[in-house]
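help with this record:
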Amino acid sequence: MVHQAIWNIKGAISKIKPSWDNHHPWPDLCQRIEKLKPMQSWSQVLWSTPNHGYIKVNTDGSYIRENNKAGIGGIVRNNNGDLIMAFSKDVQCDNNNTAEALAAEFGMKWCKLQGYTNFILELDSMVIENMLINRDTNNLKIKQMIESML
């Protein structure tokens, strides 16, 4: 059983990093694996104000596959950085892209309902951002959301 576990670990490593030599005794292999810990880094992110007369809508969506839970949130600020509105709510979806799209849709629809026409949508999903810019996707659910936003 121990040999099977070691064999499975070596197989997983060779799939992740094919060029890595894992033909070493177990203690050496464990030491090499310890060195594979991810490097932590950080960078400061600054919110940039929109131009005068505009508001900015920052949205985010999240999906956790293990428990099938999803949520969206966002914040709307004016060009002085003053809070206009913030939201957070649970949603039903089956992947992170859909959660991101739902968050963007909620923020945009709220702005339109309140009469805000000069707004900037800022999201952290490049996938959804490209879908909005190109106004197209193969995902039918997200395609419907994009069409309702435009």
In short: The longest strand covers residues 55-64.
